[in-house]
Amino acid sequence: MKKTIFGQFMVSDESEAVLRLAKRHSQSGVTPLFAYTAAEFHGGHSGTSAKSSRDVWCQGNFNAIASSIEMANKCKEFTKDQPVVTTKLTFLTDYADLRNLTEVINQQTKLIEGCLMEKRESSGVGNCRPLIEYLLRVARSARDDELASMTTCINVDNKATRLTRYQLVGLLSSACFHVALNRFIQKNPMPWVREGESSVIRLREEDLQRISRLWSRMNELNKMASERKTVVINYDAEQTFIQPAIEALVLDSMRIFNKQRPVVLNTYQCYLKRTLGFLKRDLELCREEGFCFGGKVVRGAYMDEERRLAKQHNYPDPVNDSYEITTDVYCRAIDSVLADATNTPPSSSSSSSFFFSSSSSSSSSSESAKPMRMIVATHNLDTVNFVIERLRDKKLDARESGISFAQLLGTRDYISFALGAAGYPAGKLIHYAEPESGLAYLSRRLQENRSGLPSPAIERRLLMNEIKRRFLRRP
What we know:
Layout (H helix, E strand, L loop, with lengths): L4 H5 E3 L2 H12 L3 E7 L10 H28 L9 E4 L7 H29 L5 H14 L22 H8 L2 H11 L19 H23 L4 E4 L7 H15 L6 E6 L5 H15 L4 E5 L4 H11 L9 H19 L21 H4 L6 E5 L3 H13 L4 H4 L1 E6 L4 H9 L4 E8 L1 H15 L7 H16 L3
Parallel strand pairs: 1-9, 2-3, 2-9, 3-4, 4-5, 5-6, 6-7, 7-8, 8-9
Helix pairs in contact: 3-8, 4-7, 4-9, 5-7, 10-12, 12-14
């Protein structure tokens, strides 16, 4: 099995085998990114047993990811750069939980923005105060909530009487705040919201318990990575119907664990129309709230599924119209992050007219930039060259600036190892699993990515050139 397609793109679920490969790569200047690949969940026979089986499956995945962190920590003996553990939140909870939380976040954000917009346009900024005071009450009440462990990242002082622009953005970007708001709103109706106008989903106690369990698992993994000093954990992006929940949960984790160094990394899918705006928002929040930015920039994986769902359910296609547009978004995302690396953030166009106040803290202008980490995950040689040119133009050292490159195991080796040989921080994403579940994963990913897979023509040409060189004994 290991000598088939499985062995080309994955490694068997044996720590010794994974570490041997990582050590061999490190000799060429390539750092590992470990990705445990969970077996598919097949469920139980009844409703109760299915829930129990799902939780056992999630706990098993949690244990495997924790082992990944320990394995990554061992790499400090032979790697030049910090190893990364990358995983998915759907390994730690049910899709339904993330879908529910996404709908809550989307609905509550739309409701608050709509109220602020309506009151600001009809009667001025001053009349937004009752709603702002309501949001402050939510933030204060959250600290006494039984889910208090989820509210440590709410960045509003208990004695605050107003919200700055960035504090409001921060609240609306926080999964923890939205959970607290959902509980609060059930007993305390929001100002100006007429009966029947609000259709916000009400999270049940069992929903809250599962979200709290997910948050606890994330915190444990993040804490492990933080304590190991040399390990970074990255949460992958997934489909748009659960992605807002993932983004918000990971951003809250960054608020807690990225105080001194970038421990937690979000993922930004540039094939989506919404991504650039959210990346810029996160960069601004990092500056304003004082935590380190961490991100992995990718083109994305679920293009065909997203377009099919948009057509099936008759909503706007969230995917960029062409590969060229996606490449442009990717490059602009890189520029935005590099601008932060040089501590010269680009002037942002105001796309947030719903804010009642434009005031913000001035800490970002007086303090030096915090360390950051960005993984440029791409198999496109032109994009790699673009990033290298940008680094040269800005006179930035990639390693000192926290910029690194990554490609999947078994693909674009001529990029990864050339970068490593040239002294750039390069990485290989090593998926490891039992062969049976690994092959199932590969099949799914090939299906998901078939429209965006890079052409193998270059690899074929390089292989043929090497075969000819060896047979003809050319230098």
